[in-house]
Specification:
Length: 445
């Protein structure tokens, strides 16, 4: 077993042996509950919250933590994660993916359906649920919209919802047929289910390598034009309205046009939401000159005007959530010619640092808004319960140091894969503890 997996396994074993944890002088922020206080926070052996006064004396079995530099917030959610299990365990497993999530400060993740086999049946969905049971990180499931994700025949979505699916997508493959997408909206209408989409007009993007622009022209490679994303975003928003204002979520949008389409739909009163990744609010297509295949992803990195529109959408509330699109790949799938390399990067462990460094420290958003787009927003979209920080509540917390400076290195990652352009880049803002399901996990980043 590789050293990194031994570390991940031992870290999770430590989290299962629950002790009382006493955080002295911690800053607790919960925007929904209007909580913004500095106090003493105790997590007892059952995982419940209390706020002892200055007369409290910790028992011998209580772990005391000087938390003067730490912030505790309702647990963060990553609603777009690829765990690769079943079928591609050489890239990631449920065990290593959830270890990376805990190490990155996430209490909840949503795994996407482009596994092998796809998550298009109750059997596959139950397999994932059973494998994830008892974890400090709650694993929610996005099931496939069509059988095999081939865009032709709808999955038994009602049965999958009954088994716990929180939304539906053929992620990695766009449903090309407007009729199939319409049927999916209508099928879910009586149950008000949520459809999400990887928005890509495949006829315009076949064999693409990167964004269609000046860099693709310089490299002489096939480009993916922005309009190929925007055509599908626009089509699906219109279909959602036509079918009775159905719930619809745009995954990892990347263009200024997509941001504007979502903004306009919301202004009309449509029930449309969207997410964006850290790499799309941080990098442009120029990054491929520096990071090579580690800057190759789908949707591709775009232009500065797109980044600016995304930053504006994060600031004004158009964008509801940040999601990492954590996409592990083996070394041989990235350490190769650019045109042959797999799309995607890992992101669970760097998300907090990238968000604080590039959004909070730059004044784009404040800490309250950060908590909104990493905790409140995803839960609202997915209709998950919002965790409480009030006395007596079961602790579901992300605890981080907003000022700590650190440099991500592969040796401290819990993911099975190493495909990240963020290794070696100094970040401000570091996850420290993840608290959920009566367990406490200390990050080792």
């Amino acid at each position: 077993m590789a050293l990194r997996n031994i570390i991940a396994t031992h870290s999770l074993e430590r989290s299962l042996r629950m002790n009382k944890h006493f955080f002295q002088n911690i800053h607790v922020i919960s925007p929904l509950e209007n909580v913004d206080i500095t106090c003493n926070l105790l997590i007892d052996e059952t995982g419940h919250i209390s706020y002892p006064d200055e007369s409290f004396t910790p028992s011998d079995d209580c772990i005391v933590i000087d938390a003067v530099d730490l912030i505790a917030a309702p647990g963060f959610v990553d609603m777009h994660v690829h765990l690769r299990e079943p079928g591609q365990e050489y890239k990631e497993t449920i065990a290593t993916g959830t270890a990376a999530a805990a190490n990155g400060g996430f209490t909840d993740i949503v795994c996407m359906p482009n596994t092998q086999p796809a998550i298009d049946s109750r059997i596959t969905l139950e397999y994932i649920k059973n494998k994830a049971s008892g974890n400090i990180v709650d694993v929610h499931i996005c099931a496939a919209t069509t059988i095999g994700r081939n865009g032709e025949q709808l999955t038994p979505m009602i049965e999958l919802m009954d088994s716990g699916a929180v939304m539906f997508s053929d992620d990695g493959a766009c449903i090309e047929s407007p009729e199939i997408m319409r049927r999916a909206f209508e099928y879910l209408a009586p149950f008000d289910g949520l459809l999400t989409q990887h928005c890509e007009e495949h006829s315009m993007t076949k064999d693409f390598v990167m964004h269609e622009g000046s860099i693709s022209a310089e490299f002489g490679v096939k480009g993916y034009p922005s309009i190929a994303e925007e055509l599908i975003v626009n089509r699906d928003i219109q279909l959602a309205l036509y079918c009775g204002n159905r719930r619809y979520h745009v995954s990892h949008l990347s263009t200024k046009g997509s941001v504007q389409l979502v903004r306009e739909a919301k202004a009309r009163g449509q029930r449309v939401s969207c997410e964006v990744t850290p790499h799309h609010f941080m990098f442009t297509h120029e990054a491929i000159k520096v990071h090579g295949t580690h800057a190759k992803m789908n949707p591709p990195l775009r232009e500065q005007t797109d980044v600016d529109a995304i930053l504006q959408g994060l600031a004004d509330g158009t964008i509801d959530a940040i999601a990492t699109d954590h996409a592990p790949h083996a070394e041989h799938e990235k350490h190769c010619e650019l045109a042959l390399a797999a799309n995607g990067i890992i992101g669970l462990e760097t998300c907090i640092g990238l968000t604080i460094t590039h959004l909070v420290k730059t004044g784009i958003i404040d800490l309250s808004r950060m908590i909104g787009i990493l905790s409140i927003g995803p839960r609202n979209i997915l209709r998950m319960n919002q965790p409480s920080v009030l006395e007596g509540a079961k602790a579901c917390l992300t605890i981080f140091n907003p000022e700590a400076k650190w440099i991500p290195i592969p040796e401290k990652s819990h993911s099975k894969s190493r495909n990240s352009p963020f290794f070696g880049i100094e970040l401000a803002g570091k996850p420290r503890y993840t608290v959920n399901n009566g367990q406490v996990f200390e990050s080792i980043l």
